[in-house]
Amino acid sequence: MPFLALLLDLAAAGGYFLQLHFFPNKPLEVAGVLVQLALTIGLLWLTIRYRGPRYSNFRPEGYSYFSIRYGIIVLSLILNGLLLFLYGLNLFGGNDVIFSGF
């Protein structure tokens, strides 16, 4: 499952760079938001359905760490959720920081 999360991240990065460099228009931005929404929902599904160990064996008092595999999935979900938020800000005119073009 962590490999699938990394593949979804790769698809999200590819879609972003495709929009940024080749097709900067409004209909493609809407399609990009929908694709990013689908990827984020897929990562949320992966996070919920993960069957492996969620916490590592190292557990200090009062806190426990995620295992590396589960941490990859959770970090991927958080970053793609943030990216979806930035896509939404750009789409609705709040802030165009995501497609400002370096």
Structure notes:
This protein has 102 residues and is mainly alpha-helical. It is built from 3 helices and no strands. The protein has helices spanning 2-21, 26-49, 68-91. The radius of gyration is 16 Å and the shape is elongated. The model has no long low-confidence stretch (mean pLDDT 85).
End-to-end C-alpha gap: 33 Å
The share of residues in extended strands comes to: under 5%
- Structure annotation, total helices: 3
The whole-angstrom Rg is 16 Å
Report the structural category.
mainly alpha
Fraction of residues in helices? Answer: 55-70%
Quaternary form: single chain
Shape: elongated
Low-confidence stretches: none
The biggest sheet, with number of strands, parallel, antiparallel or mixed sense and barrel status, is: none
- Report the strand count: 0
The string of secondary-structure elements, in order, is: HHH
| Mean pLDDT reading | 85
Search tags:
single chain, mainly alpha, elongated, 102 residues
Brief synopsis:
The chain is an all-alpha fold and 102 residues long. Helices cover 67% and strands 0% of the residues.
Topology:
Blueprint: H1 2-21, H2 26-49, H3 68-91
Helix pairs in contact: 1-2, 1-3, 2-3
